[in-house]
Amino acid sequence: MDDRHHVLHIVRRLAPLRPLDDADPFIAFGSELAWQAFALANGLTEEGTRALVNQVGERIAAVDGAGFTVTPFARADALSDALGFGEDGGVWVKDETGGVAGSHKARHLMSILLHIKAAEVLGLGGREARLAIASCGNAALAAATLAAADQRELEVFVPPWANASVVDALHRLRAIVTVCPRQDGDPPGDPCVHRFREAVAAGAVPFGVQGPENALALDGGRTLGWEMTNVVGAELDRVFVQVGGGALAACVGRGLADAGLHPRLHAVQAQGCAPLARAWSNAHQLGASQAGRHWEQCMWPWEDEPRSVADGILDDETYDWLGVLAAIDGSGGSAVVAPEAAIVEAHELGAATTGIPVSATGTAGLAGLLAVRADVGDDERVAVVFSGRDR
Q1: What does the pLDDT look like over 346-356, one tens digit per residue?
Q2: In 89-102, which positions are buried (b, 16+ CB within 10 angstroms) versus exposed (e)?
Q3: Helix or strand or coil: residue 64?
C-alpha cells in the first residue's frame, strides 16, 4: 500500500486485565497479542507459541545480556518530593532503561519478529528478505540487537549527523548502515525515511516502530500500558509520554484503554520540534473525529531544523499521530510543548532523584509535567516513562 495516511488499531477490551503469571510480557500477555493470534489461527499451538517466545528471548539475551521482562514501575519518592506532591499523589516512573537494548523500542520490534518467526515455522515465510529501519537511536539499536539474535540481515538508514557511538554499535551488531544525505528532488520529510521506503518497495521487511509502515509495531508496545495497570490501575490520574514518531504514546494510551482505564494522557514534544501539537490544534479546528480525513491539513513535516538535547524525539513528522490523538481525546488529555529549559531540567532532576541512568530523550515526558506542574494537583498520581539509557 502506497498510501500511508491511515492507522490500524487492534480493537479488544481486556478489562479486567488478568494478573501477570510470567516475567516475560510476551508470554504473560501472549493471548492478547496479534502475532500469537496469527500463529494460533494458522496451526501453531499455545505451547508452540510459548516455546517460540522462549527460544527467541534466549537468543536475544545471549546478544544483549538482557531478555524481555516486566520492567519496574513505582512511585519515585525523592522526585515526588522535589516537585511538591503530597503523600497521596506523586510521580510513578516506568523504567525501561534496563530493557532490551536499553529502551522500550524492542517491544515494538519483538512482535514483528515473532510474527516473522511464526510464519517461518508454519512454512508461510522464509528468511530471504532483508529487514530495514530508518533510525539513528534507540530504535536502530533495538532492531540491530534483535536482528543479530536471529541472524538476520538488517539495513539501517541513518542521517549524516548520526551519533558515532550509535553507528559503531550498529556495526558491532553487524547491521548494514546506510547514510542518507538529502537528495535533490526529495519530497519534504526525513531522507532516511524516504530511502527506507524505497528499500521496502524493493522487497525489504519494514522493521521499524512506525505503525503506518508496519502495524505489528503497535502490538507489543501495548504491553507497557498493561503492565502499568497491574501496579497503579484505576488510581492513576495522568500520564505524560514523550513523543517522536508517536508509537510509544499511542501504545501506552491504547494499552490503558484496553484495560478500561483512561487517565489523562499528555503527549510531550520539545519546543524545537512539535508537529504533533500543531496537528492536535488543527484537528480540533477541523473536527477531531474527522482528523484522519484531513491528514495533510493536520500533519506535515516540521519545516525548521529540529533542535533539542532530547534528540530521540526529533522526528519531523509524528507518524502515529492519529493513535496519539485518539489517546489524548479519549482521556481528556492534551498535547504539551516543553521549553528547552524544561527538557534540560527534567533530565538533571530525573536522573539525580531516581538514580536511573536515563537520557534526555527518556526524561522528556517529565519535562511536560514540569511545564504544566501548576495545573496538576498535589494529590494526583502521575506516571512518566523513562526510556533510553544515557550513553
Answers
A1: 999 999 999 99
A2: bbbbbbbbbebbbb
A3: helix
- Encode 234-271: b = buried (16+ Cβ within 10 Å), e = exposed: eebbbbbbbbbbbbbbbbbbbbbbbbebbbbbbbbbbb
DSSP state of 107: H
Q: Which of 68, 71, 45, 65 is nearest to 56 (CA)?
A: 68
308-330 per-residue burial string, b: 16 or more CB within 10 A, e: under 16? bebbbbbbbbbbbbbbbbbbbbe
DSSP string for 203-268: T-EE-SS-TTT-TTHHHHHHHHHHHHHTTTGGG--EEEEE-SSSHHHHHHHHHHHHTT--PEEEEE
DSSP strand pairing (73-75 vs 90-95): antiparallel
Q: In which residue are the cell numbers 487517565 written?
A: 263
Strand order through the sheet with 205-206: 176-179, 154-158, 131-134, 205-206
User: ∠ at Cα 195 (192, 198), nearest 5°?
Assistant: 150
Q: Could you tell me which residues come within 8 angstroms of residue 201 by beta carbon, excluding any fewer than 6 positions away?
A: none
Q: Is the model's pLDDT at 145 over the cut of 60?
A: yes
